[in-house]
Amino acid sequence: MTDMEHRNETEELLDLAVSLGYRLMTSGSEISRAEEAVTRLLAAYGVPGDVFAIPSCLIVTVCPDGAEPVTRMRRIGAHGTDVDGIERYYALARRLCAEKPPAAEAHEQLRRLKSHPVSYRTPVLCGGYFLAAAAFAVFFGGTLPDGLLAGVCGVLTGAFLRMLIRLKVNAFFQTITAAFLIGAVCQTLTHFGVIRYADATAIGALMLLVPGMMMTDSMRDIIYGDTLSGINKLVQVLLTTAALLLGTGAALRLSYALWDSTSVGISLDVPYPWWIQVLAAALASGGYCILFNIRMPGVFICMAGGGLGWGVYLLAVRLGASALLGNFLAAAAISLYAEIMARVRKFPAFSYLVIALLPLVPGAGVYYTVEYLLQDNRAMSFEQGVRTAATAGVLAVGMLVVSSLFRMAGVARQQRSAKHNP
Q1: Mind listing the pLDDT tens digit for each residue in 231-276?
Q2: Same-domain check for residues 258 and 387
Q3: 296 phi and psi, to 5 degrees?
Q4: In this structure, are 267 and 316 located in the same domain?
Q5: Are 333 and 309 in contact (CB under 8 A)?
Q6: Residue 274 domain flag
Q7: For the whole model, what pTM was predicted?
Q8: DSSP assignment of 104-140
Q9: In the β-sheet with 49-54, what is the strand arrangement from edge to edge?
Q10: pLDDT digit string, tens, across residues 104-156
Q11: What span, in angstroms and rounded, lies between the C-alpha atoms of 167 and 144?
């Protein structure tokens, strides 16, 4: 093979690696997983290279023997979370590393995978919005009618967001307007006696806007040492949270002015037994499975994980643990469950972890931070804000403890295998 042919083959492999990493990241994969998949692909083909990724950019450099390094960069635009896409592209990466087909054939496999996406139809997506919002409203202490109306608000919110996305409206404005509409509708319905708990109903629908996954993911990246990526995501979390605060705050202020009341909502006092709370957490996780495009049997696995996490939290608190310790133990239990399921099904643990954690995400904290602030109760507002941030950090630590132990065990197993099979 001539030098020119070798260089062309190397560049073709580089294009393949960049395309695969790009597809993983635009499907919502973690930064570490995308970097790992690209690095392993290059190593499997015997090409040394470096990979660097942040949420908005992927850079891959290969260093052919005796030649100048070659670099490719792809910008990562706005995207959602497609767990099925993550699983399929990561499975392709594993298969390519094992089989090592020619680069042209590997490109064709990637092209076929890209040209046949699998996603839920619009009626099913509407059902996902309804189920997630309705279950979360009951989870946070709302009545059954509150849950049903929260579900309707969730469907309308989903349709509204999809319309704004088609109009290419930026995410900040999407969140502000959607939060304002949710807050205004729920407060108005409460004023006229249609629903009982404005806060539970609003929070159920607002959970569709809360950046819960990105919140914990940013903490995880920072603790893992991917500081730049973690800070990037943390800034996005803060901007989204600010949009939620502004939109919700404007709706509450308008409602207070219209109805001449210091507070239209009623503080939550969850009256349900533990099994109803666990069931609501599982159903909410099921709704998000549809929104994040998780397929069967992954839906039932994620629902079981969501119920498991909340059950562990309730048990820990009942045994005398603090709320933060309960969240830590619940996150650790979910992470352990996700790691086990990932090894059983040969899928990324992320697929099961991200959904099951959502009932623990402090989405209600955003609502109550604003409500206390509008009531001029700055001390409670500050306390609620700090508690929300602390809970997100504790969840990230709980995940990391278990995932780090599994990662260490995997590295030790690889080292033993290399030692016995040099």
Answers
A1: 877 788 778 878 887 888 788 778 777 766 544 444 445 567 888 8
A2: yes
A3: -70, 145
A4: yes
A5: yes
A6: yes
A7: 0.81
A8: HHHHHHHHHHHHS-----HHHHHHHHHHHHHHHHHHT
A9: 49-54, 57-62, 70-75
A10: 888 888 888 888 778 888 889 899 999 999 998 888 888 888 888 889 888 99
A11: 35
